[in-house]
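HUMAN:
Sorry, I am quite new to this. Are you able to go through these amino acid letters and fold codes? The numbers rather puzzle me.
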Amino acid sequence: MTKFIPMKRIATYIAAIVLAGSLSSCLKDNSQPDFTQNKPVIELPVGSSAGNGAGNSIAASFTISETPSDYFIYVNYAAPEANTSDVVVTLTVDAAALTKFNSVNGKNYTLVPSSGYSLVSTKITIPAGQRKVKFPIKINTISLDPAKTYALPITITDGGGYTISGNFGTLISVISLKQS
């Protein structure tokens, strides 16, 4: 006489075997990446990357005002160890980067006119022992049309002797305006 095993019990056994096999594979992977050999990179790390080579973007919204608005982006020294000396980084407003970003992403952002922003300098120093500094920008909202969406493309042009990040070397700040 043949004994019948219910389908539900067979399914339970199969599920248990699959689960046990998948858990044991996690135990075999004990490797960790070794970041200690990475060379320093200078980057603009804030923003979301579309992964399409057209730069990263971040949204920024400002209330229209007679007084220019403070805006900051970060410049980062990315390395396993802190920098041992000051790093002077040069940035520029890069119209070509915005053209590429608009083309690749199907956007039509308007470059912020020179009257719409001001920079204290195009250079910023990452002090020895620090990794990240704020790069200050003033947004002159009164000079901008609230019906448009603007973009301010900032690109690192000189990494102070260090490699400029290929993925985070440009940051497109997409600027929208709101009435007070």
Observations:
- The two ends are 86 Å apart (CA to CA).
- The longest strand covers residues 69-78.
